[in-house]
Backbone:
């Protein structure tokens, strides 16, 4: 379904197609779902968008989602260990593992010259301000092990190390439950290089 | 990202996850896109939902999307040939091919006993009312060649035939540009059975 010649429907399809990973056909399916649903459902949806946009803020300290100035994690945990991640959803992923008890810093992006994202475009300056307070003992670089994530991690490491702070990178190797024969060469090389004595 | 403990964000994620084919993770990604976007974008999105729900109606004659009582197709084309389809987007698909110049009838579903969709739940009665007017010479059954589409086509054929009207089914065979070796058995069987002299 492309142009329906019904202005409001085409406009809604267009709005849906702005969402990440949504093409014209999927957007049209979503728009069709809305117009064939009940009036209450459509109103609830529209209200949820406005309400979330109005009330969801970002923690002034770490950049995570928050409903106040500071997020719940920053309120409770100190600045001793800071785990640096790309997006708020990465915080949630690590929190779900229930194994880390330090604070976070959300970069809201990774350095990517091809997409014109420079270090100044992500929240690196804010991280350095936190570190300058002198309460931090370790910075864990937990960006993804892809090109942009690695480059960002290396860049931040070069900024943090002069402070004499321990800088670590999350381990890379075979994921739990996967089979060795299906691992790619880079992963296998790293898994062997970073082998641990048992 | 599952629960963020930020009520309005979880609510928006929940709304997005109602859309067809959208799971929790995708819904969270959409919600993240909304809250990280501009206020104007969020307001435009919410307004597009309300506006579409308010102004998009269905043509009283054929059931296609419309912004008035009658859709643009019904206003211009007669009742001589009626092409029966499942959903409004099927009308758009056929219109894009620019080869059919008759009218349509949108069923808004197909008969599906497993999902409790009986003939009375789709717009078959409305089709029969149109046919009863006596202006129709041919009914083209253009539901998809799947189990529900075939059953619906056969059911409608049995209702229309007593009126002495020509009833046709869209052709089935190999799709243009596909390779014979990858065609399934049913398609190949039909393609051979419905072979045409050249």
Residues:
């Amino acid at each position: 379904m492309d142009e329906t010649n019904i202005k409001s429907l085409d406009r809604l399809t267009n709005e849906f197609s702005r969402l990440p990973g949504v093409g014209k056909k999927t957007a049209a399916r979503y728009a069709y779902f809305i117009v064939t649903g009940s009036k209450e459902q459509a109103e609830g949806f529209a209200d949820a968008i406005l309400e979330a946009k109005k009330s969801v803020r970002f923690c002034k300290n770490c950049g995570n989602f928050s409903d106040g100035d500071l997020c719940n994690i920053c309120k409770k945990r100190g600045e001793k260990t800071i785990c640096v991640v790309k997006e708020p959803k990465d915080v949630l992923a690590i929190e779900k593992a229930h194994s880390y008890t330090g604070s976070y810093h959300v970069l809201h992006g990774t350095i990517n010259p091809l997409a014109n994202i420079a270090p100044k475009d992500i929240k690196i300056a804010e991280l350095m301000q936190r570190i300058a307070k002198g309460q931090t003992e370790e910075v864990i670089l937990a960006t993804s092990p892809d090109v942009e994530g690695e480059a960002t991690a290396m860049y931040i490491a070069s900024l943090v190390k002069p402070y004499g702070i321990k800088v670590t990178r999350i381990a890379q190797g075979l994921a739990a439950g996967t089979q060795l024969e299906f691992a790619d060469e880079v992963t296998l090389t790293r898994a062997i290089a970073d082998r641990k004595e048992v």
